[in-house]
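Appendix B. Extra example for self-study. Work through it before the problem class; the solution is given directly after the inputs so you can check yourself.
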Amino acid sequence: MRVLVYGSGQLAQMMYLAGCPLGIDVQAVDVNSDTIVHPVNKTLLESNLELAIESADALTVEFEHVPERLLEQAAKTSKLMPSIEAILVGADRVREKRLLDRLSVPNCLYQIVSDIEQLDECVAKLGDKLIIKASRDGYDGYGQWRMTDIAQLDELKKALSALDLNAVPLVVEKMLQFDRELSLIGVRGKKGEIKIYPLTENLHHQGQLHVSVAPALDISPALQSEAENIFTTLAEGMEYIGVLAVEMFQCGNTLLVNELAPRVHNSGHWTLSGSDTSQFENHLRAVAGLPLGDTVAKQPSAMVNIIGCCSFSRDLLSIPGCHLHWYGKSVRDKRKMGHINVTADSYISLGEKLEQLAQYLPLEYFPKLLKEAARLKQSYTTPC
Amino acid sequence: MRVLVYGSGQLAQMMYLAGCPLGIDVQAVDVNSDTIVHPVNKTLLESNLELAIESADALTVEFEHVPERLLEQAAKTSKLMPSIEAILVGADRVREKRLLDRLSVPNCLYQIVSDIEQLDECVAKLGDKLIIKASRDGYDGYGQWRMTDIAQLDELKKALSALDLNAVPLVVEKMLQFDRELSLIGVRGKKGEIKIYPLTENLHHQGQLHVSVAPALDISPALQSEAENIFTTLAEGMEYIGVLAVEMFQCGNTLLVNELAPRVHNSGHWTLSGSDTSQFENHLRAVAGLPLGDTVAKQPSAMVNIIGCCSFSRDLLSIPGCHLHWYGKSVRDKRKMGHINVTADSYISLGEKLEQLAQYLPLEYFPKLLKEAARLKQSYTTPC
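Solution. Structure tokens for the complete assembly:
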């Protein structure tokens, strides 16, 4: 069994590591050179993409911004999972909004803008606190603007008028007062079976995920169930196969979908330690037509991203339940270099371990860590 | 950080998979061709062994029967962990017995035979129920003979007289009435720190391990502690670095060491699911000088070897807590093709899962499975 993953970053690498024990050979498509590379050491495995597609049993993606010509070629084989439509929903906020509306999935109030003058209409309809997103090629906070005061409107118009809004319209959303950011990772198999991980709480900084905690604290059964209904509606509505990540805002007892990622997702990395079956293994099981694995959380877990730094003490491994996942990339500003998974018997112990962890890390790169450790230490939520 | 493993089988492969997330590049030495290969797909990485040794940070082994010329070359670098002496102890039963005696570690009564006529003396000293083992190159029950009645002595002498006993003496042991076979897997780091997994119970069939259960049932704290003392004596006595497996017989409240394996061991495969840190990760952490990981058993676990067969239903993955580890080898009689790890919340549930598992497997290859499932289902031991 061979699975070809479009994209050759850390997600393909972690799929490779999950595939080996299942006897699934995961290979990666370098979408810049149209060649097939080893997902870990990136050596060339095959230079003929068509041959590789032919010999693969399943095709999938590690990111949604795969060039459309490649996706179209892949879609012709009927081996591509999830479908090209589902992948493009993740790559294009206009498609995403249309899907959410079609399936009546609650999401943030928005307007689509393909002419800069429509911004005035947005203000009239959505108010003067706006988040403006390019509909395509946005990733980790790039291609986003904020307006917090009407006085910024003219300046914004000037900045945005440089863009070709006909080709890439803007999605303008009312800035939301939300309690926190959650995500739900789930997986749908070839026969339509669905398994869903518990809601994960995500802490962002400058548009990038820094810390995840799972299961998210203080989630009522009703809220988890609402999230699962949203997942099921989306996955069934797209006839989705594989892992799908749904990013949401919690506002009181309500969930609003912010974004879909048609792939394994950074906020699901905790499943490598904290669940019986990781999101990587479950994605492969799904596209390979194997039974899906258990998604129950075994213990409270945290995932700490290592962003833009490579110098820290490996003695962090002395913390019980602490595991490093290093991606082997050269360091760049804001680049995700790896992550650290931590599990504990309780949220309080998890907070203590994050506090210990902080001692081994250059904290300027981990701006969310200590505060989250303190919050967990004061938690009274019963684990799992 | 690069670790070179002598041997390119499944143990090197599982070390590779454990090494990746730590940023440790594990490469394998094919000891038949003296070349360096990728531990998973076995492609050639380097044909010059000396260069590879030079560029590696640590050298280790996946099996003890590495040709001595290679071990001696490796030992010259001072990067070989464990030491050549420790590896040879695992490869030579005479050395092994000498070590056990020197460190006063209880083991089975024995005589060393380098002349076939000494067998009579063995009978006089050890009785007429004997296990006779070639001192070298014995693996999975090969090179072993049994005498259960004195009438077999002449026939045995005839068979054994074909061997060069001067070059490869025999170790003759009194056949033991033991309750069960246990093993203890532990790891010792570069600074002498030690972490030990709980005792594992092992079920063999025709000299091969078929099923392991961990933690072994009904182990008193005193017995676990006795086993840990034995481990510590051996590991410190050899100034051992890495994972060491100690196979033992339990006779009432006593443990007798049967065999040492200076490496990760089949009876420790359950740690991939059942412990926070797998034996593979801990071996790499040790030889890389990293802090050792937690060895506590999180849940009752079973490991079921897949031996000599490759045709079974992958629907076994539908059992929660059930994970396949496939080695990707071509099938041969008696060959270890992979293993299945199963975890559960209790031993009774573990037994039920093994019973379910049996429905997906061709039982002629799994002669120990159903009986062990039944035994676990009747267990009243509190887990972990």
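Self-check: Chain B has three domains: 2-80, 109-174, 180-377. If your reasoning did not lead you there, revisit section 3.
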